[in-house]
């Protein structure tokens, strides 16, 4: 039974908009009516009204198609998405399934800033990190993924001239060192940091993309070197991390063209 508040004209208008798809980008009023379950006159009135509002374009042939303005609706939805809120259930499941702490960070100046975290509460040894913590871009797996998604000029603007601060003998302090890591990210879809910030810590990160495919955040797993060295971390949990990154990215509107694309830039 249709609710009393239900506005049939709104239902019909959306039925008209949803008539268009990849197989039917250009339609006549008659065709729209058949797809939407409307008579031709009603379909035409709705098409012309939506054209006046800017959501439908009338072609010279007399047929109709969606206009670019329709993208504003999806853009407004996507702009309102809150990455930490969307990601927290996925983070907690990732930590539960791997037994390692997971984090999400965004770039801010020369640092990454943690915006979500799922710790391992029963672990005696734990890093002193929380939401809002800042770490250097060039010395973390999260940061290297975020740098990977930037243009060369943006990287230079953020990091400044090398050498950058070295925290261990393994810290990437030059462009040449970072470029090697960028090539590895391109091949495998993940960035690995092996005791680059702290001698006891290693981590692995993957990109989070928005609906345009742009890297807007990064997700990682962090572990202690003695119990889960970097090579073992990558071999054991790479697929789980990539799956989590893909799930968050898809909730932001990203659609990979293929399964392989989800693992690479």
The total beta strand count reads 8
Pairing-aware structural class of the strands and helices? alpha+beta
Largest sheet: 6 strands, antiparallel
The helix-strand sequence is: HHHEEHHEEEHHHEEEH
Helix content: 40-55%
Name the CATH superfamily assignment of the largest domain.
GAF domain
CATH level-two architecture of the largest domain:
2-Layer Sandwich
What is the domain total for the residues?
2
**What is the CATH first-level class name of the largest domain?**
Alpha Beta
Average pLDDT reading: 89
Percent of residues in beta strands: 15-25%
Summarize the entry for a quick read.
The chain has 265 residues and is α+β, with helices and mostly antiparallel strands. The chain has helices at residues 8-17, 29-36, 40-53, 71-79, 83-98, 141-148, 152-159, 175-188, 230-251, and strands at residues 56-58, 64-66, 101-108, 111-118, 134-136, 191-194, 201-209, 215-224. It starts with 7 loop residues before the first helix and ends in a 14-residue tail after the last helix.
Describe the 3D structure.
The chain is an alpha+beta fold. It is 41% helix and 18% strand. The strands form two sheets. It has a six-stranded antiparallel sheet, with helices on both faces. The model has no long low-confidence stretch (mean pLDDT 89).
Descriptive keywords:
9 helices; Arc Repressor Mutant, subunit A; 2 domains; alpha+beta; two-stranded antiparallel sheet; single chain; Beta-Lactamase; elongated; 265 residues
Topology, pairings included?
Layout: H1 8-17, H2 29-36, H3 40-53, E1 56-58, E2 64-66, H4 71-79, H5 83-98, E3 101-108, E4 111-118, E5 134-136, H6 141-148, H7 152-159, H8 175-188, E6 191-194, E7 201-209, E8 215-224, H9 230-251
Antiparallel strand pairs: 1-2, 3-4, 3-8, 4-5, 6-7, 7-8
Helix pairs in contact: 2-3, 5-9, 6-8
């Amino acid at each position: 039974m249709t609710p009393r508040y239900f506005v049939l004209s709104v239902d019909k208008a959306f039925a008209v908009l949803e008539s268009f798809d990849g197989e039917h980008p250009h339609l006549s009023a008659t065709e729209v009516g058949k797809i939407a379950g409307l008579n031709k006159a009603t379909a035409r009135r709705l098409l012309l009204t939506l054209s006046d509002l800017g959501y439908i374009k009338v072609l010279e042939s007399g047929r109709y198609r969606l206009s670019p303005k329709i993208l504003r609706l999806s853009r407004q939805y996507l702009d309102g998405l809150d990455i930490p809120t969307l990601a927290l259930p996925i983070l907690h499941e990732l930590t539960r399934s791997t037994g390692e702490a997971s984090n999400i960070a965004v770039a801010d100046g020369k640092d990454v800033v943690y915006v979500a975290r799922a710790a391992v509460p029963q672990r005696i040894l734990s890093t002193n990190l929380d939401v809002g913590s800042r770490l250097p871009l060039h010395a973390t797996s999260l940061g290297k993924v975020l740098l990977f998604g930037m243009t060369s000029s943006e990287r230079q603007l953020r990091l400044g001239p090398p050498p950058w601060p070295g925290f261990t003998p393994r810290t990437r302090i030059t462009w040449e060192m970072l470029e090697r890591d960028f090539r590895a990210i391109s091949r495998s879809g993940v960035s690995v940091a092996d005791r680059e910030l702290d001698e006891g810590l290693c981590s692995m990160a993957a990109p989070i993309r928005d609906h345009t495919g742009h890297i807007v955040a990064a997700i990682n797993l962090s572990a202690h070197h003695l119990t889960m060295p970097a090579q073992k971390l990558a071999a054991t949990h790479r697929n789980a991390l990539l799956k989590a990154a893909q799930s968050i990215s898809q909730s932001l509107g990203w659609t990979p063209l293929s399964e392989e694309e989800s693992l690479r830039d």
